[in-house]
Amino acid sequence: MLPMTQSDDELDSLVRKRIRALRVAQGWSLGELATRARLSQSTLSRIENGQRRLALDSLVTLARALDTTLDQLVETAADDVITSPMIDGAHGLMRWPVKGDPSMTVVRQRMTEPPPDNPSRMRAHPGREWLVVLSGTAILMLGHRRIRVETNQAAEFPTMMPHAIGAEGGPCEILGIFDRDARRGHQRDNNDGDPQGSRQ
User: Fold this and answer.
1) β-strands 128-142, 105-111: how paired?
2) By the 8 A CB rule, do 171 and 136 touch?
3) Residue from 29, 27, 23, 25 nearest 62 by CA
4) Which CA distances in Å does 143 have to 119, 121, 122, 156, 158?
């Protein structure tokens, strides 16, 4: 076997920890994963504990048994763990892209106005949204429903349903996750000049 560099050692250790963590996350004992991977329990134990060399055929079998791929099993951690927000001062927004899934965006927004009374100011567009209220109370207008969302509560809804969001009883702050279609819908809204009536 060729001598391993420090980075090889780190990857080797990471893969072993990942195998164990994936097994534990599934709630499987060593014996259960060994059976699924058609390995002996002692072999799997030595793989997890670093007492046995990581062989490609074993990794392929383990990846399949753990419902993942070989690429995911041996991928290294991303160098850039921290992402800084992009500030949209005009609409009071902070946006974070999700590197692992470029179609997703996280948005933080402070709202001070109630949602619009006029149903014509509600918007519908393809996609899905998920939001959590960080502070205060938000009002989600969804179709004909008026839904209060309190601090630490979350809401998830299909955005083809006409909707608008605003504050109740003072400012509120929300954190939302938008897929690509929902983000495009809101970007079009922003270009129209505050159509939801809830942004400052």
Assistant:
1) unpaired
2) yes
3) 23
4) 9, 12, 9, 14, 11
pTM of the model as a whole? 0.58
The DSSP code sequence of 38-91 is: T--HHHHHHHHHT-S---HHHHHHHHHHTTS-HHHHHPPPPS----PPEEETTT
Helical residues (DSSP H) of 66-192, grouped into ranges: 70-74, 180-191
Q: How far is CA 165 from CA 9, 132, 172, 195, in A?
A: 51, 12, 11, 11
Q: Is 19 in contact with 48 (CB distance < 8 Å)?
A: yes
Distance CA 106, CA 94 (A): 8
pLDDT in tens, 12-62: 888 999 999 999 998 999 999 999 999 999 999 999 998 888 888 889 999
Is 164 within 8 Å of 97 (Cβ atoms)? Answer: no
Give every CB contact of residue 3 below 8 A, 6+ residues apart in sequence: none
Which residue type, as a one-letter code, is found at position 186?
H
For residue 35, give the amino acid letter: T
Share the mean pLDDT of the chain: 83
